[in-house]
Amino acid sequence: MKRIAKILSLSLLLIFMVSPAYAIGGGAKETLEKFDHQAKTLLQGANGPSNKVADLVRTLLDYGELAEASLGKHWAERTQAEQKEFTDILRSLIEKNYVKHLRDHINYEVTYNTETRVPGGKVNVTTTLTTGTPPRQTETEVVYIMKRKGSSWVVVDVVTDGVSLTRNYRSQFGKIIAEKGYDELINKMKKKLSEE
Fold first, then answer.
1. Spatial separation of the C-alpha atoms in residues 80 and 64, rounded to whole Å
2. Which CATH number is 179's domain given?
3. Contacts of 165 (CB under 8 A, 6+ apart)
4. What is the reported pLDDT for 1?
5. Which of 32, 152, 159, 169 would staple 20 via disulfide (CB 3.0–4.6 Å)?
6. Could you tell me if 89 and 193 are in contact, meaning their C-beta atoms sit under 8 angstroms apart?
7. What mean pLDDT do residues 46-64 have?
8. At residue 160, does pLDDT exceed 90?
């Protein structure tokens, strides 16, 4: 579970750097680079309302695609209402976790490495996230899988040190559904959301 928390918190750290209001034009890599300075300024500020941070994350992450990929084959088995409920809960969990870890990972540097087009009209933006200071400095490779949505770039998956966020979720969720059913998955997610 600690590994999962680290993956999520580090993966989402860069997501806050992009505001779709400014994401019109340019490439995916350029979009991420452009808002590095703005993100750091906001993260280091004394006043950073959690709801404002969550709103920014919400506009960049494609939660619909993230939710569908996370449920895998079980997505098609759900009604439209169930799909919406699952997407809303997953979004709330991601936002809650992101805000929780926000201040813990405030000192970071980002190296933007490559932008590679991949099948399906998507782009992989490979970055290196450096946190901490020597001798406790750590480097983490974070690959953002992005696609165009209208005139903006959105993130549809994040791969941290080779671990895909959606595949990780799909494995966990699939195991719970297989052992205890879909309703138990929703109950567990709601319980996690209600925890302090």
1. 12
2. 3.10.450.710
3. 7, 8, 11, 66, 157, 158, 159
4. 45
5. 152
6. yes
7. 68
8. yes
Q: What is the pLDDT of residues 108-120, one digit of tens each?
A: 788 999 999 998 8
Look at the chain and report how many structural domains it folds into: 1
pLDDT band of residue 169 (cuts 50, 70, 90) is very high
Query: CB under 8 Å to 135, separation ≥6 — which residues?
Result: none
Give residue 45's domain range.
Answer: 2-194
Measured CA to CA, the distance from residue 12 to residue 16 in angstroms comes to 7
Residue 145 CA to residue 140 CA, distance in Å, equals 16
pTM: 0.80
What's the Cα-to-Cα distance from 45 to each of 41, 66, 106, 116, rounded to whole Å?
Answer: 6, 30, 10, 33
The one-letter amino acid at 144: Y
Count of Cβ atoms closer than 10 Å to residue 160 Cβ: 22
CB contact at 8 A, 84 and 2 = no
pLDDT of residue 13 exceeding 50, the answer is: yes
Q: 163: which DSSP letter? A: E
Q: Backbone phi, then psi, for 182, in 5-degree steps?
A: -65, -40
SS3 109: strand
Residue where the block lists tokens 């809303």 = 88
Residues 6 or more apart whose Cβ sits within 8 Å of residue 175: none
